[in-house]
Each structure stands twice: as structure tokens, then as C-alpha cells.
């Protein structure tokens, strides 16, 4: 099977705007796909060689073909929490989030929500996401089953929380361990699905629960761990009260063996110098969630300080829906740019698109995701940069440079720019259903 269009893929992390050696860009390219994977990426001049009788061609000439976007932090049970008014983190959790998540104990409800959730990700060009379920094991199962049905690669955790929340959304140290272990046994590495060890955050886990999950992480070194870290000042003060014997917030997770190269630390805004050093040394990933950080009023992530400081920290980008306000990685990149503007930092379009694709794949340790190159999974997004009148009008005054186009795309873009998505080489038919 062939997909023709303008093909963009990253070879490495760009150093900043204009670093054209970091990516490959074919003005008229063809992605050759076999058995769900990319086998070749060639210039359209070679279409005669790679095509021929019986080879299906999806012709998106003029459109941009990118690796499907990867969202490294999103909450599956918060699709009806998004856009909830007026609170900062701890009140927002109590008032909106815990009640919404309590409904996911109902398997039929969870299954219906999983269909909506994956539809919405695909509509936005996101083909892989790292997801928090609710506290209920069944919520993770519903999402994993739906993802398997679609053929997407999803990373899903049952959220563990055994204190400081209403009883309907609490588990125990033992049940969190056993439910997560059962999920791993049933689902981790089944097809394209993976299970993530998911303590919600230090406030809602007892030391016993963190210890149980730390031992699970030790037993499953190929599982990612995800949690929240230093998002909000009141949260940090609470963690200090709950764990007075620990050096700082990161040290709580570290003490229980939850900090390492497989760890995705959501937010990581208000870090101390010691925490930055330890993040760097451990290889843990700081996950930047700009729409959430602005919407919940949490603070301004220090992207360049973490990326390029004396103790460089691995970075990823994510929506954090429902604290985040958009499922679109394009809109997320736009807000990342604005957060960085407020800190006097610059986020070039190619750095942003690298992050949404290959950069985020590397944060997950998944070299076969996030790029369009031989051997990679054929998860693709096809984008029309001129999908809206305002974007077409803006680009009509552009200089035709791909980096300028990408910047317009991230600044003004949304799901309206997504023409089609391919999952393991299979078109999802978004064009027919769009409207
Ligand atoms: N910290 C603990 N739980 C959550 C959550 O659901 N969303 C966000 N943004 N932060 C959290
Ligand atoms: Zn979150």
C-alpha cells in the first residue's frame, strides 16, 4: 500500500529553528507500507517501482503526512471533566474529577466512554496515548479492549489511590498491586497494548501503596510508571506534610523505587535544584502539559531550563485532558509556545513537531513509533494546513517554507486540519465522517 503526499519525519531532536538536518522532508513523497509497517519512503518519481498492479494508492498530494501524534499524559475518565470552571488543582479534583471518575466502575459506561475517547484522539491525529484510567480495573480493561479492537498502540494504567479521596474512588495497597499485576499479566504486550503502573500522586497514595507499586515496578522493568509531580504549590505543601521524612516531592517516589528512565512525571513545574539533578541523573521524563498548567493555574513549566541546563532532563509533551483543554497536540504545542514566551524562551515549530512525534516516542522508549521510516509502525496523520479560511489566508502570505507552515499549523491548528489517520497502515475513514 502507498500513501502519497508531503512526507515529514524527524531523525533527531532539533537544536532550534532552521535545523533542517534534524528532519527529512519530501515535497512529493510516497510512504510504502506492508503488514502494518513502513517499508520504504521514496520520492514520487519512484512510484512506478514501488507501485503497480494491485497496490492500493492513497493519494494525498499536497497534504502533509506526519507520524501520528503521541500524547504522553491524558486521563481517560475526564472527558466530561474538561472545561470545568474556577478551581485550582486540589479543589478541582474534589469538586469535579473524583465524582466523574466514580462512574467508571460501571463496565458498560466505561466501554461506551472508551469508544468516544479513542474516536476523539483519532479525530485529532493522536494515534498513541499514555492514559490514566479511573481507580477501577475495569476502566483500564475497557480502554485496552477498545484500543485492541482499533489496532492502536495505547499505554493504560489503572489509577491507584488509597487515601484522601471519596470511598467510591479508593482502592487499597493490596488491591492496587494485585489489579495492576493482573492487568499486566493479561494485557502488557498483548498486540500493541501496554500497561502502565499508575499511582495517581503522593497525596492519594499511602506509603504502603507506593511501596507495593514500587515492588511491582521492580518486578516489571519493561513497564512504564506514570504519576504527577510538583504541579501546584498547595499540593507540594500537602506532600511535605504527609511525608515529612522525605527530602522533597520527587524523593517520595524515589524512596519507593518509582523514579527511573521508565518514569513519566506529569507537570514537574515547581522543582527544586535537587529534584532537577535527580530527574536528570535518573533519566525520568518531565511531561509538559501546557493547556492544563494554564487552565488550572498551576504555573509555567521551565522547558529550556530543564532541557538545556547543567542537569538536562528528558522532556515530553501532553494534553492532560481533562485538566488540559484540548485533545489536539497542535493546540497543545501552541500553548507550549505561549508558556515559553512568558518565560522568555522560544519553542520552534520543528522542536514542537519533533516532540509530538519522535520526541514523545523516545520518552516512552518506543523507537518504532513517532517516525516514518523503514521498520516503523505505519501510524500516520494527514494534515491540511489550509483547512480553515483563516489558515489558508495566512499561508497565502507565507514564503512556502515548511517550518513557517508548521508554525502556522501549530498556532492556528486543530482537529479541523486532520484529513485522515492511518493505524498500522489502515485508513480510519475520517474524511467520510468529518463534517
Ligand atoms: N494530580 C493528581 N491527579 C490529577 C489529575 O487528574 N489531573 C491533574 N492535572 N493533576 C492531578
Ligand atoms: Zn494528569
Automatic annotation (TrEMBL):
Top-level taxonomic group: Bacteria
EC number: 3.5.4.3
Lineage, uppermost ranks: Bacteria, Pseudomonadati, Pseudomonadota, Alphaproteobacteria, Hyphomicrobiales
Gene Ontology CC terms: cytosol
Keyword Hydrolase assigned: yes
InterPro entries, A to Z: Amidohydro-rel (IPR006680), Guanine_deaminase (IPR014311), Metal-dep_hydrolase_composite (IPR011059), Metal_Hydrolase (IPR032466), Metallo-dep_hydrolases (IPR051607)
Family: Belongs to the metallo-dependent hydrolases superfamily. ATZ/TRZ family.
GO MF annotation list: guanine deaminase activity; zinc ion binding
The protein, known as: Guanine deaminase
Reaction catalysis annotation: guanine + H2O + H(+) = xanthine + NH4(+)
Cofactor: Zn(2+)
Gene name tied to this protein: guaD
Amino acid at each position: 500500500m502507498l500513501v502519497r503526499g508531503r512526507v515529514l519525519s524527524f531523525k533527531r531532536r532539533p537544536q532550534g529553528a532552521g535545523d533542517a538536518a534534524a528532519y527529512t522532508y519530501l515535497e512529493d513523497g510516497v510512504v510504502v507500507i506492508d503488514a502494518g509497517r513502513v517499508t520504504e519512503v521514496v520520492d514520487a518519481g519512484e512510484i512506478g517501482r514501488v507501485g503497480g498492479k494491485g497496490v492500493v494508492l492513497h493519494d494525498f498530494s499536497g497534504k502533509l503526512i506526519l507520524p501520528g501524534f503521541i500524547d504522553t499524559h491524558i486521563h481517560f475518565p475526564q472527558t466530561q471533566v474538561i472545561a470545568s470552571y474556577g478551581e485550582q488543582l486540589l479543589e478541582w479534583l474534589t469538586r469535579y474529577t473524583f465524582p466523574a471518575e466514580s462512574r467508571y466502575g460501571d463496565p458498560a459506561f466505561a466501554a461506551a466512554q472508551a469508544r468516544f475517547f479513542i474516536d476523539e484522539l483519532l479525530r485529532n491525529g493522536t494515534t498513541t496515548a499514555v492514559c490514566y484510567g479511573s481507580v477501577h480495573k475495569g476502566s483500564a480493561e475497557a480502554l485496552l479492549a477498545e484500543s485492541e479492537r482499533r489496532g492502536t498502540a495505547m499505554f493504560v494504567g489503572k489509577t491507584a489511590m488509597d487515601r484522601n479521596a471519596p470511598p467510591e474512588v479508593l482502592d487499597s495497597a493490596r488491591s492496587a498491586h494485585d489489579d495492576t499485576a493482573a492487568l499486566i499479566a493479561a494485557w502488557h504486550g498483548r498486540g500493541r497494548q501496554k500497561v502502565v503502573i499508575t499511582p495517581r500522586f503522593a497525596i492519594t497514595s499511602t506509603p504502603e501503596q507506593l511501596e507495593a507499586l514500587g515492588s511491582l515496578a521492580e518486578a516489571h522493568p519493561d513497564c512504564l510508571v506514570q504519576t504527577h509531580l510538583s504541579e501546584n504549590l498547595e499540593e507540594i505543601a500537602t506532600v511535605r506534610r504527609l511525608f515529612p521524612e522525605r527530602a522533597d516531592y520527587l524523593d517520595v517516589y524515589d524512596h519507593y523505587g518509582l523514579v527511573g528512565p521508565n518514569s513519566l512525571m506529569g507537570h514537574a513545574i515547581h522543582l527544586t535544584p535537587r529534584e532537577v539533578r535527580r530527574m536528570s541523573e535518573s533519566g525520568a521524563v518531565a511531561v509538559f502539559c501546557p493547556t492544563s498548567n494554564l487552565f488550572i493555574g498551576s504555573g509555567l513549566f521551565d522547558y529550556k531550563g530543564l532541557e538545556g541546563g547543567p542537569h538536562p532532563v528528558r522532556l515530553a509533551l501532553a494534553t492532560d485532558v481533562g485538566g488540559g483543554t484540548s485533545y489536539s497536540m497542535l493546540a497543545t504545542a501552541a500553548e507550549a509556545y505561549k508558556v515559553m514566551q512568558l518565560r522568555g524562551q522560544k519553542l520552534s515549530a520543528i522542536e514542537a513537531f519533533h516532540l509530538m512525534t519522535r520526541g514523545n516516542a523516545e520518552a516512552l522508549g518506543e523507537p518504532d513509533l513517532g517516525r516514518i521510516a523503514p521498520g516503523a509502525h505505519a501510524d500516520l496523520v494527514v494534515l491540511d494546513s489550509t483547512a480553515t479560511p483563516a489558515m489558508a489566508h495566512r499561508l497565502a502570505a507565507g514564503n512556502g517554507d515548511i517550518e513557517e507552515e508548521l508554525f502556522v499549523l501549530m498556532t492556528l491548528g486543530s482537529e479541523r486540519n486532520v484529513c485522515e489517520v492511518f493505524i498500522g497502515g489502515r485508513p480510519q475513514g475520517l474524511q467520510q465522517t468529518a463534517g
